[in-house]
Each structure stands twice: as structure tokens, then as C-alpha cells.
Amino acid sequence: MTAGRPADEREVMALVARLDALRDAIATVIVGQRHVVDDLLTGFLAGGHCLLEGVPGLAKTLLIRTLADALDLPFRRIQFTPDLMPSDVIGTELLEEDHGTGRRVFRFAPGPVFTSILLADEINRTPPKTQAALLEAMQEHSVTYAGTTHPLPAPFFVLATQNPIEQAGTYP
Description:
The chain has a single domain (6-162), classed as P-loop containing nucleotide triphosphate hydrolases (Rossmann fold), CATH 3.40.50. 37% of the residues lie in helices and 24% in strands. It has helices spanning 6-27, 34-45, 60-71, 86-90, 128-140; strands at residues 50-53, 75-79, 91-97, 104-110, 117-121, 142-145, 148-151, 157-162. The strands form 3 sheets. A 4-stranded parallel sheet has the order 1-8-5-2.
């Protein structure tokens, strides 16, 4: 086994210090949830996404908003409901008139998924086609609409929540 280079060790120590500072910043708002915060940070740093399951009132929304604030990243929240459509998540095309030519053209209007940190609240309450639209964004880090691929910002992290009590009338 060879010893690490001092520069590598300094970089690792600086990274650990930044992670500790991030944990401390979150802990000023979220108290007593160190394990949950560590799991959330693991998912974020690994480039993955997380699913939090819990009854209302456990500060799931506050946790993800606090993470976004601590990282100074844009944050959006989508309340998933039974009538939510994929275009409500990813965006849609709008027909606009080009004042220079007088022609009508379609312009893509990005949806709330175009953010760095997204809270997908009560994801189990929305239909599978809407879940599929979000899953494409999570997997591909892009959205395809009308044959055109639109990249999402980096980093892109989704925290989905679901309430285990409200399973009747939901889409697991």
C-alpha cells in the first residue's frame, strides 16, 4: 500500500470540512435528524435522488428547502396530485407570434423540473404517466418534449416524498 500524496490528503480534509459545515448549517434548522440528513447528503453527493416516506409534519419540506438554502441552489416544489399532467412537471410549448416576421412559432416554456433541487411532494398521489415524466428527468438529466431534448441544470437532485397512511386512491 502506498501513502497518499499530501496534496490529496489536503483536498480530502478540505472536502470533509466543507461537508461538516454543510451538516452544521442544516442542523441549525433541522434538529435531531442527523441520520436522515446524512442519508440525504449521501444521495445528493452520489448524484442520485432520494425518497422520504413519512406522515405529515415531519419537516420533509423544510429539510429539502434547508439543503437548497445551505448550498445556495435554486429550489422548486411540486405538489403531486391525481390531476397533475406531465406537462405541469416538465413544461410545455407555447404558440407565440414573431413580431419581426408575423409568423407564429412554438417556444418551449420550461416547467418546475428545471431547477437544481426539486421536491416532488406526495409523488404516490399522481398518475403513472406523470411519474414517468419525472423519472425520465431523474435518469437522463434532461427532458424531451416534442422531439427536442432540453438539458436540466447541474446539479439536479430530486427528493420525492410519500405519505404511507394515504395509500387509498394512490399510485404506488
